Amino acid sequence: MSRVIIIGCGGVASVAIHKCCQLDDVFTDLCIASRTVSKCDKIKNDLIGKTKTNITTRAVDASSFDSLVALFKDYKPEIVMHLGMPYHNLTIMDACLECGCHYLDTAAYEPEDVLEPKWRKRYEERVKEKGFTSYFDYSYQWEYMEKFKEKGLIALLGCGFDPGVTQAYVAYAKKHEFDTIETLDILDCNGGDHGYPFATNFNPEINLREVSSHGAYVLDGKWHEVLPMSIHKKYDFDGVGVKDMYLLHHEEIESINKNFPEIKRIKFYMTFGESYLRHMKCLENVGLLSTTPIDYEGHKIVPIQFLKALLPDPSTLGPRTKGKTNIGCIFDGYKDGIRKQFYIYNVCDHEEAYKEVGSQAISYTTGVPAMVGAMLVLKGIWTNTGVHTLDELDPDPFIDGLNKYGLPSKTTNKPVMVE
Ligand code: NDP
Question: Which residues of 179-189 are buried (b: 16+ CB within 10 A; e: fewer)?
Fold first, then answer.
């Protein structure tokens, strides 16, 4: 018997809901709670007769502590899987502490309003101190460590693919393959084609904030920033072929740098097609990626939120996306005094993901790890109380779960190295 609340009912949540319902002996009672309850009802209706999980749906405002506490006190979940917007991470963590529930999310906290003075002051101090300018960082959620420990609760941060599986791959490499790891390249390739000139594969606001930011990497423990898309490489991905990839800042670099200080160089690359980059540059040039509200005929409009309303909803891309994703980590280091390389990755097919759960592979590769992470907490396999990214936990049961439930890992000791 387990009671679980999933917050959000977009692309990622939809996959997690389907996967939880496949494991109806673990996820016996599931509440789907989101802003637009009709979306929750639609998924519930689609699943009727296909699962023994007892599904209920509720409206919730994830930005409101009171709304969340009322829901959690009423439903009494063991774990809350937050698969909505990262703007609400802290409010949902507060509500979990208040009501005694475990917590899981798939993206590090960032604020909706990046001009809010208190947040801005701290952000500018962090930029000066650490040297990276992304709006997201883990520090806000790491501050909850003692509070979660005191209550005997677990908070799993970034339990998607990247962040998420990529950090578990680092823990796995250290546990089984290396005595010391010297360099790490995280490679995220989406070889899928949805046929639109421009669309994002997950929430457009978060996606465009991320990819239009400066790139950043860690070398000898120090952060280095570069202009957006200014470091470019080609790589031949298994299952996909040769793609152009660009260095980005990504949140797992921060936790891996903290938890594995031995790794001298940590870089993250993501593939982008020419059409995506051209559109993004143009939208940026005309101001549509701005997060600063403007006044339009008496209404306050946040340009990037307006753009989101115009772009295809990522959860509707499933039926039209063909091709594969390939996401993984390439390591260089030493085992028993001998230098070695190791590459661990997953290849996921958009059309197969759609056939199984009605979503494209980006949502699939995020929703499956979220389900597996929640399962390990519910089964009492991951018991580390406090706030954790996946590089801090035993990777074996997680990677076994991914292998079993749709995201099998492939490995090689002879990867083509990026540098
Ligand atoms: P979507 O935009 O498809 O879904 C977001 C959901 O959150 C929607 O259902 C939305 O409701 C709901 N929501 C928004 N605001 C509120 C609110 N105030 N109260 C209640 N519900 C709200 O996003 P995705 O599914 O694509 O992404 C979900 C998360 O996963 C994001 O944080 C994203 O960054 C992360 N992600 C992580 C990845 C990883 O590998 N770690 C990869 C991809 C995504 P409504 O339907 O009303 O709009």
Answer: eebebbbbbbb
The helix or strand, by DSSP H or E, that contains position 143, with its residue range, turns out to be none
Tens digit of pLDDT for each residue in 211-254? 889 999 999 999 999 999 999 999 999 999 999 999 999 999 99
Tell me which of 6, 12, 307 to substitute to probe ligand 1's pocket, judged by most ligand atoms within 8 Å of the beta carbon: 12
Closest-CA residue, ligand 1 atom 42, reads: 366
Query: Across the beta sheet with 79-82, what order do the strands follow?
Result: 54-59, 29-34, 3-7, 79-82, 102-105, 154-157, 386-389
Residue 146 token pair: 């003692």
Mean pLDDT for the chain?
96
Residue 414 and residue 164: Cα distance in Å, rounded?
Answer: 24
Task: Characterize the bridge pairing of strands 294-296 and 386-389.
Answer: unpaired
φ, ψ dihedrals at 415, nearest 5°: -75, 155
Q: Residue 418 — very low, low, confident or very high, per pLDDT cuts 50/70/90?
A: very high
In this structure, the residue with its CA closest to atom 23 of ligand 1 is: 203
CB 107 within 8 A of CB 157: no
Instruction: Answer whether 366 contacts ligand 1 (Cβ < 6 A).
Output: yes
Answer whether 349's CB lies under 8 Å from 362's CB.
no
Q: Write down the residue that tokens 């339990």 correspond to.
A: 159
Contact 69, 99 (CB under 8 A): yes
| Residue 270 pLDDT class (50, 70, 90 cuts) | very high
Beta bridge partners of 59: 34
Query: How does DSSP classify residue 312?
Result: P
Give the helix/strand (H/E) hosting 149. helix 145-150
What does the pLDDT look like over 6-46, one tens digit per residue?
Answer: 999 999 999 999 999 999 999 999 999 999 999 999 999 99
d(CA 21, CA 54): 9
Please, are residues 126 and 97 in contact by the beta-carbon 8 Å criterion? no
Helix (H/G/I), strand (E/B), else coil: 288: coil
Q: pLDDT per residue over 335-391, tens digit each?
A: 999 999 999 999 999 999 999 999 999 999 999 999 999 999 999 999 999 999 999
pLDDT above 70 as % of the chain: 100
Q: Look at the pTM and tell me if it is higher than 0.85.
A: yes
Lookup: tokens for 89: 């991470």
The ligand 1 atom at the shortest distance from the C-alpha of residue 315 is 3
